[in-house]
User: Fold this.
Amino acid sequence: MIPVPIAPFPSPRPLSAWLLSRDGLPRVRMLSGGGTVAVALPNRYSMTHILLSGDAVVVVDCGSNEDVPRVLEALRWLGRTPSQVRAVVVSHFHFDHVMGIDALARRAGCPVAVSRRAWQAFNGGPRLRPPPARSTGVLLWGWAVQGFQLLPPSDRALVHRYLDPAGPNPFVSPLLPLDDGQELPGMPGWQALWTPGHADDAQALFHREAGFLVTGDTIRNFGGGEWNPVQCDPEAMQQTRRRLSALPVRAVLAGHGPVMEGERILARMKVIDP
Ligand SMILES: [Zn+2]
Assistant:
């Protein structure tokens, strides 16, 4: 397998990230198993995950316009072209995961795959709730763990369209709604799971044979691996926790922080009061 020689974190590596990241800074990781490959690519504000199956590629999250060339570079090193990307998946509609998605999807000529709940919100259904005000301190701390990344001009020009999850659909690319349990386009074995709690529209991606779980922000790894204490719906989060904990997961690819691996890895996730 070809290594992915991409800088592990936007440089210069910020001091606060070194000081506060107890599990170390995220690095580029490539996992393979069960006939699929999952690549974890640390980007400006959050992780991007690239899933490969045969000729097909699915990209999960792209938080910044400055992440787009990094994803394209990673695809080149993986021997794939943008035209092989079948969808860019939104793990959940928070700006630090989505601001580069439209640019990437247009470049690939593919749809933006959102959970059915997000699709409904953009089509007259109940709006998506933002993170609760009481979580502001936790969110600021998380930003510091990542080194207080500032928004470059290309993101500043767009951020007003992405900051409020309750706003209208900001994407120009066509939306592809994913139902709970639905297989990802062109990716046998990979299924979308609706995982509300951190966000109303949150979805995880799971490959049962490989045991790979891409969690978005339902789990983060700032302190060894924890269920995200930022929750717009704590009750739904509890159900999501129970549901995911019953799955045979061997690797957790979280929305922030390094990949976590091991048998019964989800049992090791910390629970922090919201
Ligand atoms: Zn989030």
